[in-house]
Amino acid sequence: MILGAAVIALTMSAVELHFYPYELKLNHAFNLASMSRTVTPGVQVELRMDSIIGYGEASMPPYLGESVESVMSFLEKVDPQRLADPFQFERIHQYLDSLAPGNRAAKAAIDIALHDLTSRIMGKPWYQIYGLDPELAPCTSYTITNDTPEVLAQKMAEAEPYKIWKVKMGVPGDRELIETIRRHTDRPLCVDVNQGWKTREEALENILWLAERNVLFVEQPMDKTDLESHKWLKERSPLPIIADEAVQTSADVPALADAYDGINIKLMKSGGLHDAYKMAILARALGMKVMIGCMTETSCGVTAAAQLAPLADWVDLDGNLLIANDPFRGLTIVNGQVRLPRQLLKN
Asked: 223: closest CA among 250, 246, 195, 200?
């Protein structure tokens, strides 16, 4: 559903940039350590050159600090002529950064559209351009958040096709949630705390408890600014500690190597695929694990992120599976594993 005013079109020469708000409707309430939501605001982008269209999107969960209004305002500043050579990613990102700092979801929308456009021009998906083997894409996790017993039972039923479940902790009743899941299945779990544990001692106690319950890793256990506590925890934790909110772009990665075992790369944080690829390569060079994640996104954003899936130890690419109004068809999940399409399709 298109919200608000008609599509905005900025046209110069043969390049057209179109964008419009699009609210993502979740199948179930998304309950995190600090909030609960049933929708995610977004902005869809189309970059047109002659008869070829590249699609992009910005998705703005609250903690990013962006909004539909801020994304639209940023995109209104973009001169489409500066995108006329869509292969000049470095130059284009320098131009986007010159318009305003931050605004990474807005910049990601442009970046994703550029990658989609250039993929269509070359007739090849980006995983092939990167030289990656799509058969190496891992199984994706599927996110479950705490809820009433009836809704939780429904969530677990919907998660059955997926080999790894991601559980949100740092909320009241989170251990009971793990125990409920363990009565239902023994499949591997990954845990995302979203900074919900308040002290290093609380974090370690919980991790020692989780280590006995077939948990693969713990994501962002404490405040993202508390690097020293994460260093302390990493030295003692039997499970890998993965940075999420603590890492945004490639510039953040080197300082985190002593405090985390790996990083969660998301296009809405990094500003798109261009920097996300750099993040994955840099993390590997520093001996860190790589996770490719997503926000609540359509298949447009999730399929773009999935181009890097063969580089990852783990992927959490279920954002499109959690919404009821996906306007695209892209990656699919077969026996839990990510399957990469050769092209994104508009419904």
From this structure: 195
Which residues touch 288 (CB under 8 Å, ≥6 apart)?
Answer: 253, 256, 257, 260, 261, 262, 263
| Long-range contact set of residues 176-184: C-beta below 8 Å, sequence gap at least 24 | 177/144, 177/146, 177/152, 178/210, 178/213, 180/152, 181/144, 181/156, 182/213, 184/156
Handedness of CA 320, 326, 330, 335 (dihedral sign): positive
240 contacts 214 by C-beta, under 8 angstroms? no
Residue type, 343: Q
For every one of its 347 residues, what pLDDT tens digit does the chain have, with 9 covering 90 and above?
233 333 444 443 489 999 999 999 998 776 665 566 788 899 999 999 999 999 999 998 777 889 999 999 999 999 999 999 999 999 999 999 999 999 999 999 999 999 999 999 999 999 999 999 999 999 999 988 888 888 889 999 999 999 999 999 998 888 999 999 999 999 999 999 999 999 999 999 999 999 999 999 999 999 999 999 999 999 999 999 999 999 999 999 999 999 999 999 999 999 999 999 999 999 999 999 999 999 999 999 999 999 999 999 999 999 899 899 999 999 999 999 999 999 999 98
Burial code of 307-323, b = ≥16 C-beta within 10 A, e = fewer?
bbbbbbbbbbbbbbbbb
Give the integer Cα–Cα distance in Å for 40 and 176: 27
Helix (H, G, I), strand (E, B) or coil at 160: coil
What distance in Å separates the CA atoms of residue 275 and residue 83, rounded to the nearest whole number?
17
Torsion angles phi and psi, residue 52, rounded to 5: -100, 135
Write the CA distances from 56 to 83, 126, 145, 269, integer angstroms: 14, 14, 28, 15
d(CA 202, CA 204): 6
| CA–CA separation, 200 and 172 (whole Å) | 18
CB-CB contact of 220 with 195 (8 Å): yes
